[in-house]
Amino acid sequence: MDNSQGQNSYFELIPDRVRALQYIALKKLYSDMNNEFFLGELPGITFIIDSRKTNVMGYFQFEKLKGKKKLFSVIAVNSSQFSRDPKLSAATILHEMCHYWEAVIKKRKAANGYHDKYWAEKMRSVGLEPVLNNQARTSVSHKIKADGMFDSWWKAIPENARKNIFNAEQLLKDNAGKRIATVEYTCPKCGIVMRAERGSVITCVSCNKQLERKK
Hints:
Number of helices: 6
Mean pLDDT: 88
Radius of gyration: 17 Å
Order of helices and strands: HEEEHHEEHHHEEEEE
Number of domains: 1
Structural class: alpha+beta
Shape: globular
Largest sheet: 5 strands, mixed
Distance between the termini: 29 Å
Oligomer: single chain
Number of strands: 10
């Protein structure tokens, strides 16, 4: 969990098409970082938007959602990620990917948000230095290590590309005419938001509630 401070107003104020394209951008960023920092070993992930806690920028939850045939782990991001410095947003996602790596590659599932030494070692190896916010190690943010692996990778991305990862105007321009095949679903109890194909049947495991098509 990345406990950097966030705000929750941005996502609800922008058009659905922009939100859909930003989801696509999240998935591409995840794929690029999976290849760069994890040798492509991480399975696919489902992204959700969860802006209930304004002081939490992101978190990972193992098997948070249930489809017809399988369970899905998620990386949740605060909606303000899309209006934040893209480098900081990418670092937050990488932070959560380290949790996913520990769960699926190391086969270790830390309980109650605990950040253990295996996760911390992985963070340092990819260029992020954990910052403990409490003694219980349940609230941990990070600093980007200057000239570390992540910092060097980010600097190698062309400036125009990295600054426009989530930029609404640029996404609309680059994807003009592209059909959007997904729609938004939300949990009626906890309020998380995700995108899936029309007609999808998805259950929020934490709440034991079926997600509803967002109106």
